């Protein structure tokens, strides 16, 4: 683990924020919208602190987790939460198999146990979509004990030294519920905002190098307008999704910009007034 600390410290000493951003973009990784998020998440992970990423859809939470996995060359086990998530989905399940001509019961390990034993990253996406009564089984995994008693086998599992937990939530979305305080207090929490300005421009250019500078500039202006309207409360968070904006650029290389934005951004919004507002913003930049 000392080698991980040395890597992180070397990153801070030898690289400016802009240099780190360019390097991560070139590698297809997460780009931090401020000089601190990326480095501070790395420090938290090195210190074995479970990390909670809070932010709107499309802000890059999953990309951040994937980039951490790449940075530490550490495989990632993923859990996608929903109201149907149960202990078996997290820990594993018993099944009947035939072995050497005999029928035996075998336990198939789930993502939590695999990550704990192998020293992988456990990524829990949309953790606030799970039923509150499902997640207390992870309390001992997430605190200083870093252990778990498997209720299906009674095996006591102590986490590998490199075991890491990263969770993500979209706050205030339909189907979500407030996190239990006992669970929330086990995490170090980071708010992940949308990219903007020069960093967003770099991502656009790197993702679609064939896109013209005129198209990139138009999409950047549209993206900034959408973000401002989200801040003003006139548009839903997903209207400013970087993921959707990149989808729009991909389409706009082959079809008119207005239609590209309509398909990639506006049509995803449930509210008719919001869809109309998005297209009105586009009209200010596209003639």
Q: What's the order of the H and E elements?
A: HHHEHEHEEHEHEEEHEHHHHH
CATH classification class of the largest domain: Alpha Beta
* Strand content range: 15-25%
Biggest sheet descriptor: 5 strands, parallel
Overall outline: elongated
Strand tally: 9
Q: What would you call the quaternary organization?
A: single chain
**If classified by CATH, what would the architecture of the largest domain be?**
3-Layer(aba) Sandwich
Helix content: 40-55%
Q: Domains counted in the coordinates: how many? A: 2
CATH H-level superfamily title of the largest domain: P-loop containing nucleotide triphosphate hydrolases
Report, as a whole number of angstroms, the end-to-end distance.
56 Å
Query: What structural class is derived from the secondary structure elements?
Result: alpha/beta
Count up the helices.
13
Describe this structure as you would to a colleague.
Helix content is 44%, strand content 16%. Mean pLDDT is 85; it is low at 11-17. The strands form three sheets. A five-stranded parallel sheet has the order 2-5-8-1-9. It has two domains: 2-85 and 115-191, Rossmann fold; 197-283. The protein contains 13 helices and nine strands. The protein has 287 residues and is α/β, with parallel strands linked by helices.
In summary, what is this structure?
This protein has 287 residues and is α/β, with parallel strands linked by helices. It has two domains: 161 residues, 3-Layer(aba) Sandwich (Rossmann fold); 87 residues.
